[in-house]
């Protein structure tokens, strides 16, 4: 079925694939979308096109397969519409790339993406170094790449970070950004409940040079909490608390 007749979807990218070629297809698609974002909206990213355009394919593969990252992509059909349907890999440990919804993914047009990192556990007893939920990520020097160690999340306040949010210019103002965020929120809600957490929050860093991005995040439920500077770039820490007691 051609992409012009596919039902548009937000898809959670798999981490295991039938063949190395399947992984390479997905990694190259993600690379193309990410580099377009860095070119068209450099102020929205902490990285640069000059840096990431030099990445090897191994680096792009590692981003897709990062065990602590969940990468969602928004797929556009020929009618330029979106649906509320979100497809994600199962949790059985099977080959996710065979699941329904993934088979035609390399043949579709990708118009947006967002990455979710976490969960981390936040406690007010962590001390001054981690005084706010977003400090769990902003104080880190690198994006976590190793699988989370088994922990007891029962009754915990779990925190996730949204990063790499981007929608191509021609697909904006059509709901793709909101749908990507809601897919991430839904994933956080489901995972936090399954972990036995009592509270969940999603944090992000919005560049103060990208005022439209901060406005968008406010429109989808994030609140500005603190202004700070990282690597000489001013940003606003924003938070959205996720209600685990009800299905939204």
TrEMBL record:
Domain called N-acetyltransferase: residue spans: 85-243
Region (Disordered): 83-102
InterPro entries: Acyl_CoA_acyltransferase (IPR016181), GNAT_dom (IPR000182)
TM region(s), chain numbering: none
Taxonomy, superkingdom: Eukaryota
GO MF terms, alphabetically ordered: acyltransferase activity, transferring groups other than amino-acyl groups
Pfam families (alphabetical): Acetyltransf_7
Protein's name in the database: N-acetyltransferase domain-containing protein
Lineage of producing organism: Eukaryota, Fungi, Dikarya, Ascomycota, Pezizomycotina
